[in-house]
Amino acid sequence: MLAGIPIDFWLFALTLLGVAVLHHHTLAVALTGAAAIATYKLLFGDFAGVPGFAGLAALFGHEWVTLANLLGLLLGFALLADHFERSRVTELLPRVLPDDWKGGFSLLLIIAVMSSFLDNIAAAMIGGAMAHALFRGKVHIGYLAAIVAASNAGGAGSVVGDTTTTMMWIAGVRPGQVFEAYVGAAVAIVFFGVIAARQQHALQPIMRDNPVGVRVDFARLAVVALMLGAAIATNVGLNITHPQALSRWPAIGIAVWVALLATAGWRRPTWALLPGALKGSIFLLALVFCAAMMPVKALPAASWQSALGMGFVSAVFDNIPLTALALRQGGYDWGFVAYAVGFGGSMLWFGSSAGVALCNMYPQGRSVGSWLRGGWHVAVGYVLGFMALLVLLGWAPDAPAMR
């Protein structure tokens, strides 16, 4: 302990501080932090009560499915987003989107809707590809934060839209309980969406006219559809028939890569994108593993205040173990929790896998200071959405000790 706080948390805090300050060396900082925490626990601590290398091996055995799924999705969806952009369908969007700031706002709404049935990583990557085309590659960092926030908010109320809501569904939470999160998400999107769209319009207005002679590559769109269909079908199908398989094998990541490789002869992926995407992916995996090593055995007593705090914690702490702890503890209103853990990570670029994936496309987003200055409206929108849930629906918790 140091000042009443376990040394593990101090090391994790220093790692996050290093990521925030040294945003040009985030991968080295994250790997160094993970190594330091693991070394400290090997020498002086334990892993969930199991000391030494046996404890480390047990922890990795528990986390490897999550890590492998994230790696497969981040890399696969990086190539998917490139397929989507190279299909040139984004160049037809000016026909249907308004020409002023409302065009940027409409794009955020499209991303949120996509995320309700797609993985939020895919929604953010596709949204980033659309923004790159519509704004001619000049995207405001506040708008980048809004893309991430829209993708996370869109998945918060759907049991197939986010890993955390899927976990709740598997644990017995009814889809209707999770759906309530959309009340908060809608309020948040209106707030941050309008401000971000105006930021973007001031920097670079949306493309007004379609380029002449655009020919959509429908084969690439078909590849995108097949990859997304494989991910959704695997997720939903296994949740209904064999939910235990999802905890044993990275089935969703495998499904995406099977579809990608099966269609590679039809439309060749841009394999050159993988090295850059791999660096960003390893960074996120290192932070997730750091979070998994933290000695968090319980959350504060279930209340709307602790649920509100989960959102801020999830900006720096992996929301999957947070959700698992809440499910074991019980006594929460799951609509509030779904909104908090699903949306809260948007407040920092590395707070969610969608943010890390998007910053692989837009490296300028990897500055915590710039993200907070440009995307301040995301944090305010989170609080406003949570208050809307509290006022309009009220805190209606389940019984404690839910199993």
Explain what you see.
- By secondary structure, the protein is an all-alpha fold.
- It has one domain (7-392).
- The protein has 19 helices and no strands.
- Helix 6 (141-155) crosses helix 18 (368-374), helix 13 runs antiparallel to helix 17 and helix 16 (334-343) packs antiparallel against helix 19.
- The longest helix has 35 residues, at 52-86.
- The radius of gyration is 20 Å and the shape is globular.
- The model has no long low-confidence stretch (mean pLDDT 87).
Total DSSP E strands:
0
Structural class computed from helices and strand pairing: mainly alpha
Outline type = globular
H/E element sequence: HHHHHHHHHHHHHHHHHHH
Number of helices: 19
> Ends: how far apart?
32 Å
Counting structural domains, the number is: 1
> Helical amount among residues, as a percent range?
55-70%
- Low-confidence stretches are none
Summarize model confidence as the mean pLDDT. 87
Characterize the biggest β-sheet: none
Rounded to an integer in angstroms, the radius of gyration calculated over CA atoms is 20 Å
- As a percent range, the share of strand residues is under 5%
Layout of helices and strands:
Layout: H1 7-21, H2 26-44, H3 52-86, H4 101-115, H5 120-134, H6 141-155, H7 163-170, H8 175-179, H9 181-203, H10 218-241, H11 243-246, H12 251-262, H13 274-292, H14 304-313, H15 319-329, H16 334-343, H17 353-361, H18 368-374, H19 376-392
